[in-house]
Amino acid sequence: MKKEKNKMSVVQLTMITAINMMGSGIIMLPTKLAEVGTMSILSWLVTGIGSMALAYAFAQCGMFSRNSGGMGGYAEYSHGKSGSFMANYSYGISLVIANIAIAISAVGYASVLFGIELSPVHVGLWTIFTLWLATVLNFGGASITGKLGSFTVWGVIIPVLVISTVGWFWFSGADYAAAWNPNHFSFFDGIGKSISITLWAFLGLESASANMDAVDNPKKNVPIACLGGTIGAAIIYIVSTNVIAGIVPNADLLNTNAPFGLAFATMFTPTIGKIVMGMMVVSCFGSLLGWQFTIAGVFRTSAIQGYFPKIFGKVTKTETPIIGMIIITVMQSLLALMTISPTLSKQFDVLVNLAVVTNVIPYLLSMGAVNVILKTENVPDKKRKVTTVISIIASVYSLYALYSSGVEPMFYGSIVTFAGWVLYGFVSYRFDVKKDLEFKM
């Protein structure tokens, strides 16, 4: 089949799915996991199982669902238009928040790379600049974004592969054991405290589904990209973060904004560490490119379906929603200023936890629709039952992730969600009331 112009290939979509996770998820992980200690490997096992269950369920949804629009389309099978709206709304809000955290990660690495001490205000301003740069580079369309993502992902793949293989020569079992539980958490508290950050690392496993309208042969290629990207990321995450924990002392990991750079400086020389920091900045920026494109696609699909204002659905000749991208980046800029915190790490934590909470909502709505999708499309009973059980496992994990995120993120996430129900009231006439009137007539 001939590739459509301005459409991504399955390789490009898999790369974008992987970089959406690795490019943003991995570069700050060692520092955040050091807050718990090396017992966080137990969280990896829990999150790995949960994420694979989610990825498998999303792959099946992508294969059998007749609805477009990713998770919003899936949710509609069970929850109707209101559920579809909430999936699109909460996912869009999550991406708006998460992209700011990604930009902050890039700024953090860059500040260490150039040896610059940034004030909270300066962090906010550089974060805004990074967001706008990524937005402007996305104006060329899906094909260009895919090509850039395929290139920049090597900025994280190369250092991570090196640390996962060669890094074992510097690995100290004694240091790893000493960092097991430095804060003396109980077994379940230790696992719970790092669940949020490990799930953050896997946010993006659904982005293949979100970009299904921008890829060739989505019925076949979306499941491949979803599962392939998640499996690859899971292996890389677990191996690389645990190797680093045996190379760099836990106390040093806690106090750096560039953990991979510190690891390479410890293994080799400070110059090598600087080079790796530069590669990580490029990779993180590439991830931001992919996410900015993805969020514009989510808002565009929502606008076409009548959920969001029509202006988000306007596109150029290259099928790029430039006006929507600009509006989204304005919102992100304001939010970046509103969340300015005493330290970069604190601002990162606030944004990550809130992004996780809001992102889990469309996960749950989608998992609740899996059985209905498969029944509607007459999938054989055996396959349907297996997939339904896996979706239940994914749902239980998602609920546990919400619980582990903490009271404050749940509080603000709940307010955002409740606001969504209010906003749906302004557009529900197009779907619910109008349909009832047509039925009665």
Automatic annotation (TrEMBL):
Q: How does it sit in the membrane?
A: Multi-pass membrane protein
| GO CC entries | plasma membrane
GO MF entries: putrescine:ornithine antiporter activity
Presence of the UniProt keyword Transmembrane helix in the record: yes
What the entry lists under InterPro entries is as follows:
AA/rel_permease1 (IPR002293), Amino_acid_antiprt (IPR004754), APC_superfamily (IPR050367), Symport/antiport_PotE (IPR027566)
Identify the domain of life: Bacteria
Q: Where are the transmembrane segments?
A: 9-29, 41-59, 89-111, 123-144, 151-171, 191-210, 222-248, 275-299, 320-340, 352-374, 386-403, 409-431
Query: Which PANTHER family does the record cross-reference, listed alphabetically?
Result: AMINO ACID TRANSPORTER-RELATED, PUTRESCINE TRANSPORTER POTE
Which family would the database say this protein is a member of?
A: Belongs to the amino acid-polyamine-organocation (APC) superfamily. Basic amino acid/polyamine antiporter (APA) (TC 2.A.3.2) family.
Q: NCBIfam families per the record? A: 2A0302 (TIGR00905), antiport_PotE (TIGR04299), PRK10655.1 (NF007938)
> What is the name of this protein?
Putrescine transporter
Organism per entry: Clostridium senegalense
- Which gene does this sequence derive from? potE
